[in-house]
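step=encode ok
step=design start
structure_in=
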């Protein structure tokens, strides 16, 4: 190797070291925005409202509201908006912010129906806060551009740009499925949910999205791959269910703390109002009905005159008469003993407690 070659080698080595150092420095700067610093303190998210003493609706997060068709999802979103804007109509709820803005995007209904959303929130909210929210109807807006040179704005673009401009604290999107063509498309669903989560984080707002549940009576999962993605990405999921004249919004899932139910009904003008007392009455009636059913089940399997009966025979009788397995039957027997409806004569024998005549008469009146 001659002298000139050794100089070139040293220059290359020096330049390579400089390049490696530059890349390392750039990489370290890049990851600073993502790595968790063990010496730093990270504040908890700001919560927008409190339900039953529990803060909820965290800013910077996605929140989902799900229900069956026509089970009160939009009314619940009206309530959330009104509570944040200072409504005092729900005794267990209050706003945690003195000021702030709400944007409500309705993607499903005609303008006349969307107008009712605005009127409903107005009637639940102090007049001084009416200028703190806007309601938009996006039904006539396209999901995607109709052509490469089209100047039309899409629903997603309108929502994202309005959030960036208006800087709201609370955003309602009713419903999210109308921002894409196919809620069963994995890529489409993932892209949309990730984008909305990023917007919530970037603009430090809580974005509430409304999604239908599957059609099955007992299936409360949100529809399609979009629903699956929402369960994965949302910090909170509320389920709304109509029970008689009362709607019950339960805090189904939370990364933080689950709040108590919000119970509401509609007044003569279809304006939501607190229905906690109505729900408590419903629960008591349901409890009495359940007790009556259990008592009828018991006296069908045990002699009413107090004659002792073998546990095994009672369990077999229950299995023959009702659609459950033997383990459930023995579980019910133990429950009947705890309730005081049955007395254990010995380890294998039970008899009806004669002190339960009052329950028996009450049940017979209900059945009659």
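sequence_out=
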């Amino acid at each position: 190797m001659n002298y000139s070659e050794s100089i070139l080698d040293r220059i290359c080595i020096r330049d390579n070291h400089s390049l490696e150092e530059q890349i390392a420095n750039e990489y370290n700067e890049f990851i600073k925005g993502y790595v968790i610093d063990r010496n730093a303190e990270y504040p908890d998210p700001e919560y927008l409202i409190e339900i039953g003493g529990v803060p909820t609706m965290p800013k910077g997060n996605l929140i989902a509201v799900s229900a069956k068709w026509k089970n009160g999802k939009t009314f619940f979103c009206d309530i959330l908006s009104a509570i944040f804007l200072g409504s005092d109509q729900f005794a267990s709820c209050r706003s945690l912010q003195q000021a702030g803005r709400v944007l409500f995007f309705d993607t499903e209904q005609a303008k006349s129906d969307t107008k009712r959303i605005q009127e409903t929130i107005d009637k639940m909210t102090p007049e001084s806060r009416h200028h703190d929210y806007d309601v938009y109807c996006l039904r006539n807006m396209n999901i995607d551009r109709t052509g490469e040179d089209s100047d039309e704005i899409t629903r997603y673009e309108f929502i994202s740009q309005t959030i960036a401009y208006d800087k709201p604290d609370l955003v309602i999107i009713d419903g999210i499925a109308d921002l894409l063509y196919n809620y069963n498309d994995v890529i489409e669903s993932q892209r949309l949910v990730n984008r909305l989560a990023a917007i919530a984080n970037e603009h430090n707002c809580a974005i509430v999205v409304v999604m239908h549940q599957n059609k099955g009576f007992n299936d409360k999962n949100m529809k399609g791959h979009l629903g699956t993605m929402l369960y994965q990405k949302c910090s909170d999921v509320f389920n709304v269910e109509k029970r008689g004249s009362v709607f019950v919004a339960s805090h189904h899932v939370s990364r933080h703390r689950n709040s108590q139910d919000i119970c509401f009904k509609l007044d003569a003008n279809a304006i939501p109002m607190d229905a906690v007392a109505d729900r408590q009455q419903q629960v008591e009636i349901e409890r009495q009905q359940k007790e009556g059913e259990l008592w009828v089940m018991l006296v069908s399997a045990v002699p009413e005159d107090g004659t002792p009966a073998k546990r095994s025979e009672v369990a077999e009788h229950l299995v023959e008469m009702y659609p459950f397995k033997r383990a459930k039957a023995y579980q019910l027997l133990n429950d009947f003993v705890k309730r005081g409806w049955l007395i254990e004569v010995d380890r294998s024998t039970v008899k009806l407690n004669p002190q339960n005549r009052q329950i028996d008469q009450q049940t017979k009146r209900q059945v009659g």
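step=design ok
step=annotate ok -> The first helix runs from residue 3 to 31.
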